[in-house]
Amino acid sequence: MWYLSQGGQQHGPYTRPQLEQLISRGQAQGSYVGAEGQPGWVSIEQHPEFSRLLPSAAGSSPRGSRRALVWGLGILGLVLVVGIGIGLAYRLLDGPKSVLARVVPEDVTLYMEVADLPGAIEAARQMDVVDLSRLDLERHREPTVEAMTESLGIDPGTAHQVIDEIESVAFAGRTSGSHTTGAFLVGLSGAGGVDALLGSGRFERQEAVGDSGWRYRVRERDAETKDETLVRKLLDEASTSDDAEDQVLVWFHDRALLAWGDRTFIEGVAGVVDGKGKSLSEAEHWTAASFRPGAQVVIYGAPGLWNERQKARELVTRFFDGVPGITICVELEDAGVLTTIQGELRGSSLPEASLSPAPALELPRRLPASTLGYLAIPTRSELSGAEFRRATIEHLRALDDDDARKTDRAFDEMRQELGVGIEEIWDAFGDELVLAVALAPGARIRPGREVEDYLDDAALGLVLDIGDRDTMVRLVELLRREAFEDGPGAALYEVTAEGEGFVARPKGGPFPYLRVALQDDRLLVVGGGEAMVGRFVDAVAGSGPQLGDDPAHRAAIEALEPGARAQLWIDTGRVLDDLLHADEVVRMLEAIERKTGTRPIAVVLEGDERIGSAIALHLDTDGDRWRYQLQILNGTIPLGAMLGLGLLQTVDSLDELESLSGHLEELEVEPTKMKQALDALP
Predict the structure, then answer these.
(1) Is the pTM of this model over 0.85?
(2) In terms of DSSP bridges, do strands 203-209 and 326-333 run parallel, antiparallel, or are they unpaired?
């Protein structure tokens, strides 16, 4: 064992690996080192074995940005170590390579894992849409280590070792009726750090669990200091009861596995660890599920997750009869956080069907470069209009005879009133359609603005590939006559023919300018400000800046798999940038910046690498089975998490948080307007 002498105070004992870690981090500079049982102290700088480990000797920084990120997320691992339940629902694993699925029982119905935490952190560091240069995560490690040493009674070397050894984290649970049991699990690269941690006065070894586990009691520490950090508060309050049937902390030394949760569940874990039980990774329902290779994170819902409840059983019969479990995989891409939900549908409410492959979506690339968002749907079908109507009625009849009769009657009435039926309309559709909103480059989105406030600066457009041009010309003529010339629009609009389409100019009031155009093999229906409508039409025709040339849009779409049945994209960076310039938000951010010296936004909002959000739905059929895949890029939860990265800069203590909150109140930032800004997020 080894000791350090710093400023006249002795620290240790340390194992050799612990001491080497302290030296390589630059935490032993100016210190003296001594070996147990040997007299005298030697300066670190003069020591023949340890001087080479000093950062200056290596000629490089003691830690890279990956290690700095580990420190930030290491707080999550620390919370698990002392048994605080944390939200891991949005961090997961690499399917077949799952680490902790090998130690939980096969009857698990809900499972969440980050199998390679350092790898996930490295992937997060590589994301283009998160600007980690604005963050100083390294400064949070030392306060965390300090909180651990003071609350848990361990030396700094042990605290560093515990953080560095965390490799994987997971939650596993099983349901029985309305009762759920489960546990949080932490897998480590070695047992040294936790062994030293459990040797402190806060922990007491009590009894064996299985052949290789030991249950530990965690004593609550009744201590409160000024400027107490959140981590310190959580560590102080962590405890277990004397009741062995309550939540327990169990350490499996040989497996370097720490488990906190229900005793009965952890006994099942012990059985798997001891080789006496079958693991989840060996279960047939697990191996039958679809996982994304390379995903950093996974959530798994077993087939029997909802079967215990009567209403759920009815739902299963209608839609989930005999299907594999549902998986949610999270991948950290250059474009952001990609979440993929995969599963199958089968049941009495679903017809047998055969879907033709969806064509690649091309229309979105022709939209104007100022597009704020769009929804694109492939409309190509092997069914004729008559076959489509017949299949629709048959499907409705399988669900409800009355609904089927009403729909069939409505189709007949449409033909009688308009002179054209659903069959012709269906045949007029080509390969795809897209509904898009464009906003002038200089225009700003502001909470509280009415729709009419955007009329001059915006355009809403429908672009549709044409399948049967003659039918589409008839439909355009029908629209002009029934909606405008002889319809309700006659009092509001002046209509003039333009080629095979028409233009409708408002006679007054807050109404949009409208243009309907047949352009090559496309139909355009666009409304908004006249100038914006013109730019929209020109872009689709190829004579104006197009969205396909935008690197941010291209990066977002390339993160998704092709062949979607529906695809949605939002220019999230532009939306957020606009909202963050709202007066209330500006005042809040300025207050935080004055208080902390850091602007708490780490997401890239401008330029070619700005963040975007997208959703893609994939469907395929195999007889009576419908396979689905829903991909979500930078959805609400991960987007909020990425925005929250900046808040790591803002407060180091609970007192600072209270002070900042009071400062915001002094600025009279109105909560209702802040809510409007948040509600406006996509």
Answers:
(1) no
(2) unpaired
Residues near 320 by beta carbon (within 8 Å), at least 6 away in sequence: 303, 306, 344, 345, 346, 347
End residue of a domain, out of 17, 42, 58: 58
**Is residue 96 within 8 Å of 291, Cβ to Cβ?**
yes
- Asked which of 227, 244, 277 is the last residue of a domain, the reply is 277
Examine residue 154 and state whether it is found in any structural domain, yes or no.
Answer: yes
Q: Among all chains, which residue has been given the structure tokens 């069939």?
A: 408
How far is 509 from 452, CA to CA, in rounded Å?
10
Q: Is residue 298 part of a domain?
A: no
Q: Which of 248, 62, 258 is nearest to 167 (CA)?
A: 258
Residues 489 and 524 reside in one and the same domain: yes
**What pLDDT score does 637 carry?**
59
Question: To the nearest whole percent, how much of the chain has pLDDT over 70?
Answer: 73
Q: Which residue has the higher pLDDT, 487 or 293?
A: 487
**Is residue 254 located within the same domain as residue 148?**
yes
Q: Are residues 372 and 249 in the same domain?
A: no
Does one domain contain both 538 and 403? yes
Q: Are residues 476 and 501 in the same domain?
A: yes
Cβ 369 vs Cβ 547: under 8 Å: yes
DSSP letter (8 states) at residue 214: E
Q: What is the pLDDT of residues 601-656, one digit of tens each?
A: 678 888 999 999 999 999 887 777 788 899 999 886 555 555 554 444 444 444 44
In angstroms, the CA 122 to CA 104 distance is: 27
Residue 564 lies in a domain: no
Task: State in Å, rounded, how far the first CA of the chain is from the last one.
Answer: 57
Give whichever of 397-411, 429-443, 653-667 has the largest mean pLDDT: 429-443
Most confident option among 112-126, 587-601, 634-648? 112-126
Per-residue confidence (pLDDT) for residue 266, from 0 to 100: 94
Spatial contact of 381 and 425, defined as CB atoms under 8 Å apart: no
Tokens of 212: 């290789």
User: Are both 500 and 531 inside the same structural domain?
Assistant: yes
Q: One-letter amino acid identity for 378?
A: P
| Domains held by the chain: number | 4
Q: Distance (Å, rounded) from C-alpha 414 to C-alpha 416? A: 5
More confident position, 488 or 675: 488
Q: How far apart are CA 129 and CA 642, in angstroms?
A: 9
CB neighbours of residue 161 within 10 Å: 25
Is residue 617 in a domain? yes
Six-digit token string for 171? 């939650």
Question: What's the mean per-residue pLDDT of the chain?
Answer: 78
Per-residue tokens: 398? 């399988």
Q: For tokens 């874990």, what's the residue?
A: 269
Structure tokens at 601: 């936004």
Is 133 found in the same domain as 161?
Answer: yes
Per-residue pLDDT tens digits for 257-280: 999 999 999 999 999 999 999 999
Whether residue 524 sits in one domain with residue 585: no
Residue numbers of the domain that contains 489 = 368-545
The b-or-e profile of 528-549 (16+ CB within 10 A means b, else e) is bbbebbbbbbebbeeebebbbe
> For residue 253, what pLDDT band results from cuts at 50, 70 and 90?
very high
